[in-house]
Inverse folding.
């Protein structure tokens, strides 16, 4: 474990916390310009969030947001300077000013996070079922501490669910009942918690994170399908709002097509979008089906037969420009 300047990492962290709190009480003491690398290092931690959060910030402000790296599936990781009274994102300009490398700083950030506590920060909710207790907006970042997760006593490889920034659920990929508990819990968050964003599970395999994607007949398949569709519905709706506002301010006549969910006769959830000639140029979300002037076409058929007319826009989740 890398130690923060001054010796023991835990002692340094708590000591520095008191110093920062004192600065918050006496405003004159905290007046300063951009934070230096030496000031930032003891407070540097990783932050795992849905990747859409970073994309949404860019669409909302029109400026580059924090520097981030895709983690797995629909999640990404960035660096933050987590002061007691504020949280500072680390952007490309900060890295350039510090002459620092993102990946090397990430190693230090993970060490700092580990110094704040390990497996004792998880509460056992049942056999092989755990929930984080930090509630410091960095609960999801604990998935970057694989040694901690593997000491929890899980049935199989760790699977994590991060329905909001203060909740991390952990079970094993061979524990069917535990997986149902975690995914059902994620759906409850999505239904009841306004902060809930993304309940899609990730699995740690060979120390690499990947989307948890079991075989189609797995008992949690229907739950997993509902969570994925809910995530896309939420992100595409928020994306459409931001794009409509941006195009309106720019005077651009672009139709941002909607993304809708419906229940199939078999009880599953299916998605669709709509396009017609009257829309002109449209940006289509990737849905299960597309209604083209009243006729229904599966998305894969549309992409296969009209690939020359569909142009990726470069968003996340992706949309496709259709001009004719």
């Amino acid at each position: 474990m890398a130690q923060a300047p001054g010796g023991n990492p835990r002692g340094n962290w708590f000591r520095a916390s008191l110093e920062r709190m004192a600065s918050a009480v006496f405003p004159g003491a905290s007046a300063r310009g951009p934070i230096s690398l030496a000031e930032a290092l003891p407070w540097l931690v990783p932050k795992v969030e849905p990747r859409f959060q970073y994309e949404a910030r860019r669409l909302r402000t029109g400026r580059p947001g924090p520097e981030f790296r895709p983690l797995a599936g629909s999640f990404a990781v960035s660096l933050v300077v987590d002061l007691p009274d504020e949280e500072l994102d680390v952007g490309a300009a900060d890295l350039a000013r510090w002459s620092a490398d993102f990946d090397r700083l990430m190693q230090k950030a993970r060490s700092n996070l580990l110094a704040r506590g390990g497996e004792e920060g998880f509460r056992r909710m049942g056999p092989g079922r755990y929930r984080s207790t930090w509630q410091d907006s960095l609960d999801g970042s604990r998935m970057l501490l694989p040694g901690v997760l593997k000491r929890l006593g899980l049935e199989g490889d760790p699977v994590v669910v991060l329905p909001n920034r203060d909740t991390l659920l952990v079970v094993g990929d061979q524990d069917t009942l535990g997986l149902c508990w975690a995914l059902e819990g994620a759906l409850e968050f999505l239904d009841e918690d306004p902060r809930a964003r993304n309940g899609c599970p990730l699995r740690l395999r060979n120390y690499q994170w990947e989307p948890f994607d079991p075989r189609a007949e797995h008992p949690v398949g229907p739950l997993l399908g509902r969570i994925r569709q809910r995530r896309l519905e939420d992100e595409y709706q928020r994306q459409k709002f931001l794009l409509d506002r941006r195009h309106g301010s720019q005077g651009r006549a672009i139709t941002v097509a909607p993304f809708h969910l419906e229940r199939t006769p078999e009880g599953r959830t299916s998605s669709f979008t709509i396009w017609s000639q009257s829309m002109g140029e449209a940006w289509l979300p990737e849905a299960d089906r597309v209604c083209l002037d009243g006729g229904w076409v599966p998305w894969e058929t549309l992409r296969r037969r009209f690939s020359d007319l569909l142009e990726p826009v470069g968003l996340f989740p992706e949309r496709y420009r259709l001009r004719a």
Summary: The two ends are 57 Å apart (CA to CA). Residues 1-31 have pLDDT under 50 and may be disordered.
